Amino acid sequence: MEELGRVDLRGLQDPGSPGWEEARAAVAASMLAHGCVLVVAGVPAPELRDALFGRVLPDLFVLPRDVKLRNAPGPPPNTGYFCHGVQESARINHADDADSLRAFADLLWPDAAGDKPLFCEAVAAAEREMQRLDGLVVRMVLESLGLPAERVVAAPPLADANRIVRLSHYAARPGPAADDGGGVLSMAAHYDYSFITVLMQHDVEGLEVLARDGRWVAVPPERDTCAVIAGELLTVMTNGRVPACLHRVRTPSGRERFLALMSTLPAGTSVVVGPLNELVDGAHPRLYRPVDYAAYARFKYSDDGRELGNRTLEAFCGVVNKEGAGDNDGVEVEQQGIVAAG
Ligand SMILES: O=C(O)CCC(=O)C(=O)O
Ligand SMILES: [Fe+2]
């Protein structure tokens, strides 16, 4: 039975730091096998993490629905606030920019109400840490696939990305019917269409990931640990080497739950992502055509896409005829594997 990797990344900054190579080997092994690795992080500081989950998120989700909807949802990939079953979620674009956090707080608490400085400080601290973990994991994976250093740092998720934060709330499922022993899901199994998503749980269980051997593995909500999962764009960019991670949410205790996540998306909405040229060769035929990620997100959530369930990526940009797919299929892919589509 192959376990999910659990790797301590505390204090690790750059290639060359002590412990880099061992950590890289463990991170890459787990990401290449499962599209997921658990990383011990240790920051943000416990008091900010407690403030985030104990005050900031409860204060946000207790707001009236019409106020939360000021974070207006647009067509995918521009989802703002949404509510589906027991889950509700608010999305902040470019959450690595203090102005974006401030603008989001001003939108929801236009007058003096709400502790906006605490909101901004706690979300910024969580975002910084999740961004650090995302960067380390992508870097370790690309290094382990043999990409030269200059290409690693120029790769889209590291160089130029929209780092979104999504803050989520799952309502309690009261009573003994909270779980029927297996089936009740708070969020159905899905792939994220991001490059990477980092998930920060807190105290209440819920996240489950599908391991390579087909078992659902519950990721315990440890305060110093985040789960880092591969989204579909990382699968495309690595030409299938890193499988996207199928994941779902199940909370047998039925308790109310909060979650913070950070996802890396391409920086613009007219961006095409294709396999990195170095990862396409005779032994590794091209598996994906370059994909306009916004068009893909719209397809994924369209009626046709929903009918396909979790097979949308293959349907949208998978190379069907694997024979003779060893070259670039006549498609010019820019060196970084990402080009502005105009
Ligand atoms: O709540 C979780 O643990 C996972 C949430 C998730 O996968 C998502 O919002 O895309
Ligand atoms: Fe997800």
UniProtKB/TrEMBL annotation:
<dbReference type="GO" id="GO:0016491">
    <property type="term" value="F:oxidoreductase activity"/>
</dbReference>
<feature type="domain" description="Fe2OG dioxygenase">
    <location>
        <begin position="160"/>
        <end position="268"/>
    </location>
</feature>
<dbReference type="InterPro" id="IPR027443">
    <property type="entry name" value="IPNS-like_sf"/>
</dbReference>
<keyword id="KW-0560">Oxidoreductase</keyword>
<keyword id="KW-0479">Metal-binding</keyword>
<dbReference type="InterPro" id="IPR044861">
    <property type="entry name" value="IPNS-like_FE2OG_OXY"/>
</dbReference>
<dbReference type="InterPro" id="IPR050231">
    <property type="entry name" value="Iron_ascorbate_oxido_reductase"/>
</dbReference>
<keyword id="KW-0408">Iron</keyword>
<protein>
    <recommendedName>
        <fullName>Fe2OG dioxygenase domain-containing protein</fullName>
    </recommendedName>
</protein>
<dbReference type="Pfam" id="PF03171">
    <property type="entry name" value="2OG-FeII_Oxy"/>
</dbReference>
<dbReference type="GO" id="GO:0046872">
    <property type="term" value="F:metal ion binding"/>
</dbReference>
<dbReference type="InterPro" id="IPR005123">
    <property type="entry name" value="Oxoglu/Fe-dep_dioxygenase_dom"/>
</dbReference>
<comment type="similarity">
    <text>Belongs to the iron/ascorbate-dependent oxidoreductase family.</text>
</comment>
